[in-house]
Amino acid sequence: MSDPKERAARLSCFRAPDEIEVLGGGITNVNLRVSDGGRRYVVRLGDDIPEHGVMRWNELALSRAAAEAGLSPGVVHHEPGVLVLDFIEAKTFAPEDVRDPANLARITELIARAHRAMGPTLTAPVLAFWPFQVNRSYVARLTADGSAHQALLPGMLRQCDALEAAAGPVRMVVGHNDLLAANLLDDGERLWLIDWEYGGYNSPLFDLAGLASNNALTEAQERGLLEAYPGTDPERDWRAYQGMKCASLMRETLWSMASEIHSDLDFDYAGYTAENLGRLHAALDDFSRLQGPK
Q: Where does the Aminoglycoside phosphotransferase domain start and stop, copy by copy (predicted)?
């Protein structure tokens, strides 16, 4: 990639950018904040990432729909490998912010609103995101690429089958599918949901489970999510939800394994893999206990 600041400065949507700053936190894209004409913008630089199923046309369609629904900042400009958005002056959440009971209630409402609003505002085709197919695809690619984690992959495939069976029939919504804390912003009055590169049709349980698994919610908080989210029930849906939670953690683990091989970004993917493997094993143990004695 050419120098990100130089590339951002040359974009046709800017007249005379006078301040360009690289934003931290990105583990898939390079993100910059650009000031131009008294306004500020976020520039996301990143091409398609086939090993992760990231297609920028899909991200663009979902970003536009999310902006139309009032969930995400407006799309200002796009071209191959570039997405320019309005900058939101806001606090980026950390996991401890997500776990705060007051924030968690707001986030649950935001997720439910996103699931209601995104479909009607879409004006272009988008992908489906079925986590079990995603995980099988990762395993196939990691096997072909000679991943250092080869010994773990056959067991993950077997676990994936059991988790998919637990999911049962689903109702489809347009999901975000990457509910890390850093994708939630608080401007002091309202919350924003950003970064739609993994968005697509999925079960609503996957977003709820991803929020929980990525932010270390307690079991009481998880049950509260299912109680508060319209149409779900903590007793009826607990097994399917736990299956989705394991699928979410497996996806994050496999994502990191693939990034160890393919990503050029300066990030400790090996450490991230180890962290997520530990969380995945703990969640699978909990899921196994739900199945009862063999």
A: 20-238
- The angle that helices 153-167 and 131-144 make with each other, rounded to 10 degrees, is 170
- The secondary structure element, H or E, covering residue 253 is helix 238-262
The structural domains of the chain, ordered by start, are: 4-86 (3.30.200.20), 91-291 (3.90.1200.10)
Determine the pLDDT at residue 25. 64
Single-letter residue type at 204: P
In terms of C-beta density within 10 A (0-12 exposed, 13-18 middle, 19 or more buried), how is residue 244 classed? buried
What are the tokens at 168? 């049962």
What tokens were used for 216? 């270390």
Would you say how long the chain is, in residues? 294
Which one-letter DSSP state was computed for residue 145?
Answer: T
Sign (positive or negative) of CA dihedral 237, 274, 45, 136: negative
**57 C-beta neighbours (distance < 10 Å), count:** 14
Helix or strand run (H / E) with residue 56: helix 56-68
pTM for the full predicted model: 0.93
pLDDT of 293: 47
